[in-house]
C-alpha cells in the first residue's frame, strides 16, 4: 500500500563492497630493485584501465640502489608517488628532475620514451609507489609528456580525522587533484585516517576501483558488513556509487580508480598496446633508436 511517506524516495545508493583481496607479492624489477607488486600479477593481471601497481619500501640500500637504468615505455602512463626518500629521473627528450617526499610524477609515455629512474640516496628509507595507467588506442602514439608536482602542489582535504591528498580526480567536496586524465578520468587519492574515524565518499559508477592499505588497517563497509583490509593488501572494490571506510586503529591507503577503456590489451614488457603486432613494432622502433 502506498503511503504519503512514499512521495519522495531517496536516491538509490550502493556501497562498493570488497570482491577480491590480493596480498602484495614480493617482486624484483629494474636492475634488481626489490618491490611489492599489488596489481599486474597472476592473481590480478589488470583492472582496466589500471595495469600495474608496485610499492618500493626499504631502508636497506642493496634493495634499491641499482634503480631502474635506461629503459623504454610506449602506450601508457606511469605515475610515481614518493612517500620517503628521493627518486631522480632523466629521459631522452631532455626532461630531468627529482621526485621528493609527497611529490608525484605523472609521465605520459605516449609513442615512446627512454628514461632512467634512480634513487637519489645511498642510505635511508626509500618508499614510493608506481602505477601504470593505460591510454586509449587514440592516445597511445601521442607525444611524450611529463607532469610533476611537489608535495605543496598536491591539495589536501581535511575532514574530521581524515586527510585526502588528491593527486588525480575530484572529491565530492570539490578538492581537485592537479592531474585530470581525459580518457580514464582516473582518481588517485592518498587517504590518511586517524584511529576511530570513518570516510564516506561518492565514486563514479563507471569506474573500476581498488584500495591498497599501506599502513595500519582499514575496513571497507558495505551493506552492513565490514571487511578489514590489513597493511600490504589490495582490495578490489565491486560495483557501486559510494565508498565507506572505517578504521579502529588508524591507517593509510591509496584509493585508485579509472573508467575502463574496454579495448584489447597487448602487454609486452615496457610496451602496452592493443595488438601483438603493435608490441612488436614498438620493439623494432626502440631497437632502431626511433624513440
Ligand atoms: Mn620506467
Write the layout of secondary structure elements.
Layout: E1 18-23, E2 25-29, E3 33-39, E4 50-58, E5 68-73, E6 76-84, E7 87-91, E8 96-99, E9 104-108, E10 113-119, E11 126-134, E12 145-149, E13 156-159, E14 162-168, E15 187-193, E16 198-202, E17 208-222, E18 225-230, E19 233-237, E20 242-246, E21 251-258, E22 266-268, E23 271-273, H1 276-287
Antiparallel strand pairs: 1-19, 2-3, 3-4, 4-11, 5-10, 6-9, 6-11, 7-8, 7-10, 9-12, 13-14, 14-15, 15-21, 16-20, 17-18, 17-19, 17-20, 17-21, 22-23
Manganese (II) ion is lined by residues 68, 71, 73, 78, 115, 117.
Structure description:
- With 291 residues, the protein is mainly beta.
- The protein has two domains: 22-153, Sandwich (Jelly Rolls), CATH 2.60.120; 155-261, Jelly Rolls (Sandwich), CATH 2.60.120.10.
- Helices cover 4% and strands 50% of the residues.
- It has one helix at 276-287; strands spanning 18-23, 25-29, 33-39, 50-58, 68-73, 76-84, 87-91, 96-99, 104-108, 113-119, 126-134, 145-149, 156-159, 162-168, 187-193, 198-202, 208-222, 225-230, 233-237, 242-246, 251-258, 266-268, 271-273.
- Strands 1, 13, 14, 15, 16, 17, 18, 19, 20 and 21 form a ten-stranded antiparallel beta sheet that branches. A seven-stranded antiparallel beta sheet has the order 2-3-4-11-6-9-12, with no helix packed on it. It has a four-stranded antiparallel beta sheet with strand order 5-10-7-8, with no helix packed on it.
- Strand 13 and strand 14 form a beta hairpin.
Amino acid at each position: 500500500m502506498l503511503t504519503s511517506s512514499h512521495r519522495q524516495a531517496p536516491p538509490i545508493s550502493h556501497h562498493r563492497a570488497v570482491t577480491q583481496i590480493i596480498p602484495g607479492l614480493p617482486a624484483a624489477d629494474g636492475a634488481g630493485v626489490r618491490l611489492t607488486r599489488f596489481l599486474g600479477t597472476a592473481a590480478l593481471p589488470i583492472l582496466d584501465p589500471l595495469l600495474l601497481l608496485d610499492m618500493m619500501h626499504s631502508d636497506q640500500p642493496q634493495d634499491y640502489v641499482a634503480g631502474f637504468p635506461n629503459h623504454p615505455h610506449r602506450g601508457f602512463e606511469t605515475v610515481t608517488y614518493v612517500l620517503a626518500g628521493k627518486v631522480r629521473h632523466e629521459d631522452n627528450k631532455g626532461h630531468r628532475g627529482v621526485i621528493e617526499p609527497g611529490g608525484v610524477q605523472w609521465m605520459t609515455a605516449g609513442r615512446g620514451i627512454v628514461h632512467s629512474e634512480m634513487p637519489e640516496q645511498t642510505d635511508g628509507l626509500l618508499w614510493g609507489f608506481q602505477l601504470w595507467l593505460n591510454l586509449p588506442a587514440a592516445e597511445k602514439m601521442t607525444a611524450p609528456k611529463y607532469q610533476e608536482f611537489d608535495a605543496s602542489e598536491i591539495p589536501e582535504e581535511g575532514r574530521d580525522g581524515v586527510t585526502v591528498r588528491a593527486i588525480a580526480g575530484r572529491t565530492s567536496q570539490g578538492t581537485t587533484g592537479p592531474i585530470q586524465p581525459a580518457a580514464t578520468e582516473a582518481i588517485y587519492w592518498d587517504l590518511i585516517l586517524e584511529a576511530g574515524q570513518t570516510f564516506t565518499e561518492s565514486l563514479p559508477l563507471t569506474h573500476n576501483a581498488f584500495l591498497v592499505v599501506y599502513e595500519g588497517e582499514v575496513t571497507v563497509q558495505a551493506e552492513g558488513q565490514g571487511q578489514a583490509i590489513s597493511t600490504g593488501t589490495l582490495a578490489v572494490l565491486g560495483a557501486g556509487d559510494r565508498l565507506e571506510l572505517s578504521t579502529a586503529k588508524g591507517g593509510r591507503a591509496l584509493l585508485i580508480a579509472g573508467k575502463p577503456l574496454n579495448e584489447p590489451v597487448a602487454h609486452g614488457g615496457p610496451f602496452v598496446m592493443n595488438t601483438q603486432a603493435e608490441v612488436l613494432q614498438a620493439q623494432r622502433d626502440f631497437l632502431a633508436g626511433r624513440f
